[in-house]
Amino acid sequence: MARQERALRTRQKLLEAAAKVISARGYRAATIAEILKAADITKGALYFHFDSKQALADAIIKEQTLPYAPVEPPSPLQRLIDMSLEIGRGLQTDPLLMAGTRIAVDTLFDESPVTPFQDWTGVAVSLLTEARRAGEVLPHVEPSECAELIIAAYTGVQLFSQAASGRKDLTERIVTLWKHLLPSIANPAAIAHLDFDKVPAQLD
């Protein structure tokens, strides 16, 4: 058990170090040597868990969604909005999310891009499907199509915010996105009960 716990701690240290290096330097510029130095871990320990920088990137993309899976409140649309705002805050502070974005952008035009879009879209499809069953979205809304639009728009908003302010105004821009998008997809009665007051504080 102790050996397994050490292995899990080592793996987590590697992911955190890789995330910090990649978010600061970019996926292509980051080197295994820099990641090993940041993690204070040997090359052998790294290759025990990950056989390449690509494998590290895949793990970052996979794990960045885990802390943001929404479970409350009961309204599916509210959960989707809350998740978008929590991710916005995470993109200001969470190395895994920041690194995931760098990886996605840096590899977007590669033959095999490493992106989180499929995972995030899957979460949005699930919530929109719930919302349709609950009558929160309009009858014409098709969950998979709408989810792709939301993720695409959200990606553009966060990249624009990065360019404009280093993401300092990201949560404000996310709220603006929702206020323009919701009237075209949501039941007016549902919109009236949605809450944007839990917007995370902006960074100074």
Can you describe what's shown?
The chain has 2 domains: 2-60, Arc Repressor Mutant, subunit A, CATH 1.10.10.60; 66-191, Tetracycline Repressor, domain 2, CATH 1.10.357.10. The protein starts with a helix and ends in a 13-residue tail after the last helix. Helices cover 69% and strands 0% of the residues. Mean pLDDT is 87; it is low at 199-204. It has helices spanning 2-25, 32-39, 43-49, 53-63, 76-93, 95-106, 117-133, 143-165, 170-185, 188-191. The chain has 204 residues and is mainly alpha-helical. It is built from 10 helices and no strands. It is elongated, with a radius of gyration of 19 Å.
In short:
It is built from 10 helices and no strands. It is mainly alpha-helical and 204 residues long.
Any chance you could write out the topology, listing elements then pairs?
Elements lengths: L1 H24 L6 H8 L3 H7 L3 H11 L12 H18 L1 H12 L10 H17 L9 H23 L4 H16 L2 H4 L13
